[in-house]
């Protein structure tokens, strides 16, 4: 019996690299760039080790040995003036609108994403402080 795509069995096989959606399995592969072997060919042990290493180092997976921050954007160090303006805006309104986010980003020389993240983190800090005060 052929297992349909996204069945439990198919998903279990696909996580091991052994299954494809039914349409992809029936479609003939044209030889070309990036096609090195048929989908049912055994994967060399070195390739499996490389895939596992890449999986462990992908975001969302803790490093097994040693610490360190995951790769990506380094932590933003806000200046005192930036923090003062962000805190002033937070006191006025805890949830920032799109226009205010754009204004703050331009005035403080930060990205809108940084402004959004700062507000999210500040709301969580506010929530912890109010819960601790009770």
3D architecture notes:
With 134 residues, this protein is mainly α. Helices cover 54% and strands 0% of the residues. It is built from 6 helices and no strands. It has helices at 8-15, 22-26, 45-57, 80-92, 98-108, 112-133. It is elongated. The relative contact order is 0.06. Residues 24-28 have low confidence and may be disordered.
Keywords:
134 residues, mainly alpha, 6 helices, 54% helix
Topology readout:
Layout: H1 8-15, H2 22-26, H3 45-57, H4 80-92, H5 98-108, H6 112-133
Helix pairs in contact: 5-6
State mean pLDDT (0 to 100 scale). Answer: 75
- The geometry reads as elongated
Straight-line distance between termini: 61 Å
Rg, Cα atoms, Å: 24 Å
The quaternary state of the protein chains shown equals: single chain
Tally of individual helices: 6
Unreliable segments of 5+ consecutive residues: 24-28
Count of β-strands:
0
N-to-C series of helices and strands:
HHHHHH
Helical amount among residues, as a percent range? Answer: 40-55%
Largest sheet: none
Percent of sequence in beta strands: under 5%
**Strand-pairing-aware structural class:** mainly alpha
